[in-house]
Amino acid sequence: MNDDTRAHLSFSASTPTPARIYDYYLGGKDNFSADREAGERVMRVFPQAPTLALANRAFLLRVVRYCVQAGIDQFIDLGTGIPTSPNVAEVACAFNPSVRVIGVDNDPVVLSHQRAHPSSTPGGYTIVEGDVRRPWAILADPRLNEVIDLSRPVAVLCVAVLHFVPDADDPAGILDTFADAMTAGSYLAVSAVTSTDTDPAVITQIEDAYKNASAPLIFRTADQILSWFDPLDLVHPGLLDVSQWPTGIGVPTDVRILGALARKRWRAHTSRTRPAGGAG
Ligand SMILES: C[S@@+](CC[C@H](N)C(=O)[O-])C[C@H]1O[C@@H](n2cnc3c(N)ncnc32)[C@H](O)[C@@H]1O
Fold it and tell me: Whose CA is closest to atom 20 on ligand 1?
């Protein structure tokens, strides 16, 4: 990655951003006409984009419930997005009011809205500026370390973010950096859009719709996404279409996001072992 990449983007209403386009899919109001135009271009070839966004949210909240029930009380929510409800902190704190969540994002609209509308959850939500392409900078941020104790198990959420990170910025290496920093018993959740079993003409049109955005949208094969979890233990049901996850919305879509939750094992092994307990 370019050394001069700043943690945050500059604000521009005329350049669509992933966060604001997603907000449009979800029916939010924190988007501009350029974002809506990009979203409409996607919906012309993939009308179920809002359904897929909702399915991704359902996956995110499902893995949060699983982690908090497994005893996790601290979350790092990478690419946290524009505030929406229910959110990670609300769902986690419903199970354990002392849960702490740190949100990380590089979009100025996300940062300002998250600061303006702090979560009302008792455990609390803190937002910090950060770019996932600089994982070491996020992990070294003193504000993160005030909230998160990396010597204790943590859940790192990287949901619908890495498809905005080009191969040149090494998505697998980014996840390795977080996984290395997590203590045993920690969890990593990832979802990303897949090219597997997807019409190549539709992929091209969607990629085109994001071409003028602040970040490209990159489709990856199921095998590529699966490889990001090495050498963690996948939690049942493994890597799956987010809409098919247990308690997911169950509506199949023509373009799919695949999601999985994995756990850092207590002892290092060199090959994938049996799945940990199920999230189903
Ligand atoms: C599609 S939204 C997903 C929001 C939330 N994680 C969810 O799944 O509902 C993608 C989010 O990732 C953020 N994002 C994209 N690239 C990023 C980067 N390089 N560093 C930090 N955040 C990024 C965007 O600003 C946006 O808020």
Answer: 131
Homologous superfamily in CATH for domain 18-263:
Vaccinia Virus protein VP39 (3.40.50.150)
107 ligand 1 Cβ < 6 A: yes
Provide φ and ψ at 5, rounded to 5°: -65, 120
What is the total residue count of the chain?
280
**Any ligand 1 atom below 6 A from CB of 92:** no
- Walk along the chain (280 residues) and give the pLDDT tens digit of each residue: 433 345 567 889 999 999 999 999 999 999 999 999 999 999 999 999 999 999 999 999 999 999 999 999 999 999 999 999 999 999 999 999 999 999 999 999 999 988 887 655 555 789 999 999 999 999 999 999 999 999 999 999 999 999 999 999 999 999 999 999 999 999 999 999 999 999 999 999 999 999 999 999 999 999 999 999 998 999 999 999 999 988 777 788 999 999 999 999 875 544 443 344 556 5
The span from the CA of 118 to the CA of 137, in Å, is 23
Which SS3 state, helix, strand or coil, does residue 191 take? strand
Gap between the Cα atoms of 35 and 22, Å rounded: 9
Answer whether 57 contacts ligand 1 (Cβ < 6 A).
yes
Counting from 1 in the atom list of ligand 1, the atom nearest the Cα of 215 is 16
Domains of the chain, by residue range, sit at 18-263
With a 6 A CB cut-off, is 18 part of the ligand 1 pocket?
yes
